[in-house]
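Task 17 of the worksheet. Students: predict the tertiary structure of the chain below and write it out as structure tokens. Keep your answer in the requested format; marks are given for formatting as well as content.
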Amino acid sequence: MDNQIRTGLPDCCGNGQKKKSTCPRCCRLPALLVLKKLDFPKTHDLLDLLAILTENEPLLDVLKPELRILNSFSVQFRYPGESATVEESQKALTAMKHARKYLKDRFSF
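Model answer:
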């Protein structure tokens, strides 16, 4: 059964072990790093990825507030014993949608 159906929370917000690592992909930072041909470490820390991107694209710094919210879901809530509330998950989903829209509008992907 789909995790969103079971919990009512979006999968990208760390509700299922297999989906806990998807927030970096949700906001598309790794894809943008590849598109820009920038080297980056294997990390789930979205702020680290943003720091690499802003060296070449300073305007992306506008995403920092959203990525701070999402960072908990890509790092803190990744491991057993940590979980997010429904409110935190909804806030993260809103942040992810805003980040994705900004990146899509700016970079057409």
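Marker's comment: Confidence is low (pLDDT under 50) at residues 1-23. The first helix runs from residue 3 to 7.
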